[in-house]
Design a protein that fits this description.
The structure holds two protein chains of two kinds. Chain A is mostly helical. Chain A has helices at about 10-35, 40-55, 75-100, 110-130, 135-165, 170-205, 210-215, 220-230; strands spanning about 60, 65-70. Chain B is flat. The two termini of chain B are about 35 Å apart. Classes of the chains: A mainly alpha, B mainly alpha.
Chain lengths: ~240, ~100
Amino acid sequence: MHIMEGFLPWQWCLVWWGVALPFLAMGILELRAMMRKDRVYLPLLGVCGAFIFILSALKLPSVTGSCSHPTGTGLSTLCFGVFITSIIGAIVLLFQALLLAHGGLSTLGANMVSMAIGGPIAGYAIYRLLRDTKVSLYVTVFLVTATADLVTYIITSFELALAYPAQAGGIPASFEAFFAIFAITQIPLAIVEGCVLALVFKYIIALKPEILITLKVFSEEQILRTRHLDEGTPAPGNRL
Amino acid sequence: MMGKYKLELVTILAVLIFVAAFLIVSSGGAHSFTGSDDQGSAKIAELTGRPAGSFAPIIPQYVPPGSEIESSLFALQASLGGILLGLVFGYWLGQRRTPPGN
């Protein structure tokens, strides 16, 4: 989903930077407030950042005959929300723009809007929709992660279609062309990413459930019940 | 026992299906498995009628001198994430195993 340096007209670069900056500002404020409150969240923040670092570095072959990479933003979206995820995503994208020539500084705004903001917003919407229902925690994590991944690529297609409408068919035709390249390739990768991050979430519940409860990612009852089902131990209702 | 590891089994199954699909598609030899980012750039070139090489950077940037260097930098990125992940999970595991009061 990286739009390469120079491949977006400067006017569109400014537009997407303009969209991204308020999210980054909110993210910095949220992060500062959270760190002042309690630094116990720092390791979990590290895990979320690590996953974006790892998954966005993996160029995986897809069944469509091309390669693409997962985004890894689902876990951070669940645990810390959209604003802090935008900061973590921006750091990864900056690393890739500066060292790997993957993306660029002028297109960083557009790449942030797709991977670090738009995808996480879609994932967060799914999370809010399912959080207080009886849907399994792991199914929720899977759907949030897969949605954040897939929507990232849909937004990239949209950004490119806006900048480069097709001569015949305009923006919709161009969107269709970019969608075929980016989004369809991404479907199998999004499914695998969803499964992997659901599994990681299981290990976080096993090792550090109290952080998830403190952050109110899910209710204490939901987490205890899931842990009970995973381990077949203490009856739900026992406090941690 | 199976219930305890249901999620692990589902994940392994998903990965196996993914790998099997890749093997079937790649065995045909009809695909070059180029990056979708590069395909996107090629599509822009096609839509604008300009060669991909004519898109000059707006802000000059460092370009790794060769695909080997680029691959190693990608590996560096993934390994940084892996180190951090191992560190945190190891720390949490240590905390779990340490008796209270120690």
